[in-house]
Amino acid sequence: MSVQNEHSRSDTANSNGNQLSVSVKGKVITKRRAIFAHIIFTCINFLNYTDRYTIAGVLSDIQNYFNIGDTMGGLIQTVFILVYMCFAPLFGFMGDRITRKYILMTGILAWSFFTLMGSFVGPSNFWAFLMIRGLVGIGESSYITVSPALIGDLFPQSERMLALSVFSFAGPCGAGFGYILGSGVTSLAKDAGAEDASAWKWSLRVTPILGVVAVILTALFVPEPVRGASEAGNETGDEIMVETSFKEDVIYLVKNKTAVYSTIAFTAVTYVLGCLAFWAPLFLEDAYLAQGKNPSNTYISLGFGAVTCACGVLGVALGSYTAKLYLQRKTNAEPLVAAYGMIAAGPLVFIAAIVVEYSPAAIWPFVFFTEIALALNWALVPKILIDCVVPNRRALASGLATGVYHLFGDAYSPFFVGLIADVTYGNSSHYNQFKGLQLGVLTCPIVCVIGAAAFFACAIVYDGDKSKTDEIVERNARERRLARGEDPDENRVNADDDNLAALGGGPFLDNKYDTEPLM
């Protein structure tokens, strides 16, 4: 089939909705194949968060096993996130330059292997366990950095919100299932005769098996579209952006106000989520113990797991649906809806931290609505970043943003809250443990205010940055077609390239940057 015929086939497929216009060296990625790949991405994302939050579901067992306090307990998550954060920019840089599915497969294998290794550490080797949990973060950072950019290249803007929403469902659902898996498998292991002190280790031996399955599915069924293949104005699915240097990419992203403000805002979200996800089960357990009651850790973890799953689904769906409706009135609906969610979350988490002291069971409705408010932006923020960043810089944008999210968000909050608890009240009694954690949790409403302000700032600059990005993509696509003698309207692309460079796009491709093979 000739190149021209292939392009015609792609355009026709795009118009009838049965195929995506992602043409790669004579092949077309059908919509069915893109959807199947998306299902695989979503399942792996679920597994990613399940693996991460299994530790939170058995935290008290881990503390007893290693004989550590709240500060060291919080450090487990902090070390994981710090390593995760440090490697995210590297994987983002690689994701804009090499075959992305290979990065995904290597990362999944890495986190599966090190998660399994962590289940064999002895009680006197806490620092070895800490190091292994850090290595798990390397694998997980590769996946979460690269996958949103791949989804952006598989689905056009009109379908991207739905694709990212479904992908984002897996985050809170996986986190909630992590609580359930951790406490449930530990309970089953004890019933089966495992020592009580080390039964929690069995909970770390489930996700590695599923990780191997995920690698096989990725190798067999996930395609590798070219960067920018699904953008408006790029009907042929060509690689339309040149490869640029790391320095140029960073300068572009620092000047991109939407990327900066959305990163600051979501850092606030991850701070609150990190605090609640890691400490909320133990916080509630201490509230019961401070009143002389003896709660079931399994019951509390299962409860938080169920609430997190339900709230994740409801919050992401509500955020996406509200933004879609609001788009009819406001073109910057996504950052506005995210801001409203943060405004609602602040008072809710404040009330939850106060009422639990007097009635521990009363915390549940406030936690429920807090997590829904926070989940509103889970799908919105990735879409904001993709819409306002050019295709050849999206993986790096995701990587750098992920690094900032976690450095000042959920890497910081578990350790900081645990430190506040130990320094202010200590561990001399259950009441003191509770009061210390309460003081740490009360930092969250302040952070919610900062996040809301950043989202509102993002809303102000969003339309301008999105228009610039669309113009760059469309211009480069036209110049690419003109270079092949395929664009009938040459007058549209005769403007000086300096105007395009001023927008951050760079010149059109030459032959050495031709389309990549379908993997």
Question: How would you summarize the topology of this molecule?
Answer:
Blueprint: H1 3-16, E1 19-24, E2 27-30, H2 31-57, H3 59-66, H4 70-95, H5 100-118, H6 126-154, H7 157-191, H8 207-221, H9 246-255, H10 257-290, H11 297-326, H12 333-355, H13 363-375, H14 380-387, H15 394-408, H16 412-424, H17 430-441, H18 444-483, H19 497-502
Antiparallel strand pairs: 1-2
Helix pairs in contact: 2-6, 2-7, 2-8, 4-6, 4-15, 4-16, 5-6, 5-8, 6-15, 7-11, 7-14, 10-11, 10-15, 10-16, 10-17, 10-18, 11-12, 11-13, 12-13, 12-14, 12-18, 16-17
Tell me briefly what this model is.
The protein has 519 residues and is an all-alpha fold. It has helices at 3-16, 31-57, 59-66, 70-95, 100-118, 126-154, 157-191, 207-221, 246-255, 257-290, 297-326, 333-355, 363-375, 380-387, 394-408, 412-424, 430-441, 444-483, 497-502, and strands spanning 19-24, 27-30.
What does this protein look like?
With 519 residues, the protein is mainly α. The protein has one domain: Growth Hormone, Chain: A (Up-down Bundle), CATH 1.20.1250. Helix content is 73%, strand content 2%. It is built from 19 helices and two strands. A two-stranded antiparallel ribbon has the order 1-2. A hairpin with a 2-residue loop joins strand 1 and strand 2 (27-30). Helix 5 (100-118) packs antiparallel against helix 6, helix 10 runs antiparallel to helix 17 (430-441) and helix 12 (333-355) runs antiparallel to helix 13 (363-375). The longest helix is centred in the last third of the chain and has 40 residues, at 444-483. Mean pLDDT is 81; it is low at 1-26 and 492-519.
